[in-house]
CTCK domain-containing protein (Panagrellus redivivus), 162 residues
Amino acid sequence: MTDSNFPATEPPNIVPECEKVAGFEQKSAVSRHRSALRRVLNLAQQQRRLLFIVCCWVVMLSNTGHCGTLRPSCRLAGHEELIDVAGCDLVAVKVNKCHGYCSSISFLHPVDQGALAMKAECCRMLEVQKVSVNVSCKDGPRTIEIPSALECGCSFCAVDRI
């Protein structure tokens, strides 16, 4: 028996409540697995980038001269320093300074997007001695002490008072 006022339609597709829940759980598990897989792939990609950067860094710092890199060459060098003190004669004295270059590298951080990572070293005096210099001044002789390098090497870049 059908009511003639209503057209015949197929009954709606009613899914039992337990199947809905099971389907939802199944779909959710697939989504979680996909999400976890994406995270693993992203991590693997970041690790490959980091490995590549580290390998490049090792090549640059290995002193082999490959890929156009320069070997660090921080060394002692003789230097004539002019001592110019107001009211005194100008005096030239020979001292040692550090001369050369050291390794530096900068690159985009592989994990922290947009951040710059860097490592730089400067040719610096590692050991210093004071050299006493006698200068003639209008008000009498004076002794001035100036630094002279005993040992040089590549070290972190900074400004030091000697």
Q: What stands out?
A: The chain has two domains: 16-67, 72-156. Helices lie at 17-61. Residues 72-156 form a domain with the Cystine Knot Cytokines, subunit B fold (CATH 2.10.90.10). Strands lie at 75-83, 91-99, 104-108, 116-135, 142-156.
